Amino acid sequence: MADRLRGSGPADLFERPSGGERALVVHVKLPGDALDAPEEFEALAESAGAEVVERVRHRRNLPDPRTFIGSGKVEEIALRVAEQQVGLVLVDQPLSAVQERNLERDLGCRVLDRTGLILDIFAQRARSFEGRLQVELAQLRHISSRLVRGWSHLERQKGGIGLRGPGEKQLELDRRMIGGRIRQIERRLCKVRRAREEGRKSRRRRQLPVVVLVGYTNAGKTTLFRRLTATDRAGEDRLFATLDTSWRRVDLPGGAGAVLADTVGFISRLPHDLVEAFRSTLEEVADADLLLHVIDAGAEERDHQIEQVEAVLTEIGADAVPTLRVYNKIDLCERGAGVVRSGADGDLDGVRLSAVTGEGVEALLEVVAEYLGPSRIRRLVRLSPAQGRLRAQLFRAGHVLAEHCTDGGTLELDVELPVHELERLHVREGLAREEVADLAALPPRSIQSGAR
User: Fold this and answer.
1) Pairing relation of β-strands 347-352 and 257-262?
2) What is the mean pLDDT of the chain?
3) Distance between CA 32 and CA 135 in Å, rounded?
4) Which of 274, 276, 280, 256 is nearest to 373 (CA)?
5) Pairing of strands 51-59, 22-29
6) Which of 120, 174, 209, 221 has its CA 20 to 30 A from that of 85?
7) Pick the residue with more confidence: 366 or 394?
8) 414 has which bridge partners?
């Protein structure tokens, strides 16, 4: 951990002060900040392995262009750094390269902003080949924007006899080297994406619905995953304990089955580079049949955490996937387990449970089974000639029992498929609901067999 915080890996491109694990945390509150949660940032620091020995809270109307926190606050923090022998200062705001550099020069120790700290945690936790590539890609993208003034020994472009250099500054050579490595990682991740796509096709062929756990970091997704699948996958009480997606089959009431996935947790102000780097992993979320949004029922900032998760789901194109809220950790907040309904019609709002004790888990499985359902339905789907993509998807999945072309050119397909697959076609593939009719409600008429 100490090596990472000192800047091992790609960060070695910079000449930076070395620092240990004794950290001072600076929480800066700006007007308009939606969340004031210094405890969360301190938990991030501890999750990275830092020993928080000093805390500073600060309010500003505008960031200082040179140091973000202002010269007076820098002097105050410098004194505390010296008194506590602090080797690392963590700032709970995004810093520019110049601000980070100026703070390090004034404080005489290593400085990391929120983005740099989260990247460090991800670098520690990634275990799979893909996860490590994704983290390195995010780190390189972050570093490439911070190379300005990162070197004190630039190779100057010179002229004159005996003074001609290679024609490039060291800074430009570093940019080119980083750019080359980024392209290499992107090519490797493209191969991984193709493998993931084959895995998705395989699951579709087996007609197993896919259920994905999503939620704020440390909401208890991995513990619930372990409870539902009866596996020994470790769940830890720390932020970002899970980075690598895991898949397991889960048996549902009534004899049906589904594939359950455990994914990386989200957090406020999740670095954009990380979202981009983990896009191939997050595509699994957007392709799911059902999302279980795991929520820490006792969290003080519960509503804000829900908003942050929904914002990330929108960013990755998963906001249209049907979602069921799962209120976890009721054993800590003394709330009853079971199905939660709201409104005059008793609409399903979620399920309350404890992944640790298992209370309420059976109710969750029953709700999931009811939604996914082993039962299949027959429908008449009418498609225009321009909707060849939808037609191909129905044939590829093996759902088309018969096909008929009307005199007007409309294709009528007699299809049999699970309820959740029909819903997926409606929500994510653009199949209009008026194009689907219940065969039982139609007047008797034979549909000519034409399915291939």
Assistant:
1) unpaired
2) 77
3) 30
4) 256
5) parallel
6) 120
7) 366
8) 380, 402
Tokens representing 115 are: 């983005």
Long-range pairs for 79-85: beta carbons < 8 A, 24 or more residues apart: 80/24, 80/54, 80/56, 81/24, 81/107, 81/108, 81/109, 84/22, 84/24, 84/53, 84/54, 85/22
Q: Is residue 272 a contact partner of residue 354, using CB atoms and an 8 Å limit?
A: no
Q: What's the token pair of residue 113?
A: 């902003």
Same-domain pairing of 30 and 95: yes
Please indicate, yes or no, if residue 449 is contained in any of the structural domains.
no
- In a shared domain, residues 352 and 414: no
Q: Which domain holds residue 388?
A: 376-441
In this structure, is residue 451 part of a structural domain? no
Which of these, 58, 78, 69, 66, lies nearest to 17 by C-alpha position?
A: 78
Are 391 and 406 within 8 A, CB to CB?
no
Our count of domains for the chain comes to: 4
Asked if 234 and 334 sit in the same domain, the reply is: yes
Count of C-beta atoms within a 10 Å radius of residue 127? 11
* Distance of alpha carbon 401 from alpha carbon 450, whole angstroms: 8
User: Using an 8 Å Cβ cutoff, are 116 and 84 in contact?
Assistant: no
Q: Which CATH number covers residue 400?
A: 3.30.70
Q: At what angle do helices 361-372 and 221-229 cross, to 10 degrees?
A: 80
Coil vs helix vs strand at 356: coil
| pTM for the full predicted model | 0.69
What span, in angstroms and rounded, lies between the C-alpha atoms of 174 and 145? Answer: 12
Q: Which pLDDT does position 32 carry in this prediction?
A: 74
Is residue 352's pLDDT more than 90? yes
Domain shared by 102 and 131, yes or no: no
Burial code (b: 16+ CB inside 10 Å, e: under 16) for 286-304 equals bbbbbbbbbbbbebebbeb
- For residue 448, being part of any structural domain is answered with no
Q: Tell me how far apart the alpha carbons of residues 304 and 35 are, in angstroms, rounded to a whole number.
A: 7
Least confident of 241-245, 248-252, 294-298, 428-432: 241-245
State how far the Cα of 432 lies from the Cα of 72, in Å rounded to an integer. 61
* Same-domain check for residues 332 and 220: yes
Model confidence band, residue 162 (pLDDT cutoffs 50, 70, 90): very low
Distance CA 419, CA 416 (A): 9
| The two structure tokens encoding residue 20 | 């240990």
Return the structure tokens found at 43.
């938990």
Q: How many helices (H) and strands (E) does the chain have?
A: 15, 15
Phi-psi region of 9 (alpha: psi -120 to 50; beta: other; left: phi over 0): left
Are 237 and 353 in the same domain? Answer: yes
Do the domain assignments include residue 197?
no
